[in-house]
Amino acid sequence: MSVALRQGSPAELRVERVEGRDAFVQLEREWNAALSRGPRDEPMLRHEWLRAWIENFAPGATLRTFLAREGKEICAAVPLIETREQGADTCFLPMVTWHTPSNDHSQRGGVLLGRRGDEGLGLIWDTLVATPGWDRLRFRDLPTGAPEWQLRDRADFQPLIIDHDEERRGVEPGDVLGGNVLFFGAHDFGRVKG
């Protein structure tokens, strides 16, 4: 199922959400074509790699893929896997996390950025922030300086408590209950909303 969520202005970028593995599998050809037009045409961002990761590390998890398109062309895409977690990194609070498909075994993550990828990713971010159903967004193992780090800059302009690993700024376990928290690390960031 695909649902148009938000329409952009002049050049008609729009965001849609694709639900489930079958719909994700159908994106392979256009995904890889868009990747080849973007700034990072890397093996670990190819559709085949992500599909294999999802099949092996998250076989039963819910998958949502947010796509920014101009017409039929994919400009940016963010596949997110839903997990329910309660551990030290969630301050032992139960949370629904939507995260990119990467872990300690992949050691490299990212999102699809094609032609007009920066614009599309910004529109996807705005859509994600407004979409219900998650407590934490997590983007993991992004290479330093990757274009996806613009999301961190965009989040700095939103009313969030920001916690940089290098300069811990006042985030205590109770803060997670009362507000939004955006986590950034050297290669890992996410957002928690209250």
Characteristic terms for this protein:
194 residues, alpha+beta, Aminopeptidase, 6 helices
Q: How widely separated are the two ends? A: 28 Å
Topology, number of strands: 10
CATH superfamily label: Gcn5-related N-acetyltransferase (GNAT)
In the CATH classification, which architecture applies?
3-Layer(aba) Sandwich
Helix content: 25-40%
Poorly predicted runs: 159-189
Number of domains: 1
CATH topological fold name: Aminopeptidase
Shape: globular
Helix and strand composition category: alpha+beta
What's the arrangement of secondary structure elements?
Layout: E1 2-7, E2 13-19, H1 21-25, H2 28-36, H3 47-57, E3 62-70, E4 73-85, E5 95-99, E6 112-113, H4 117-130, E7 136-140, H5 150-156, E8 161-164, H6 173-178, E9 181-184, E10 188-192
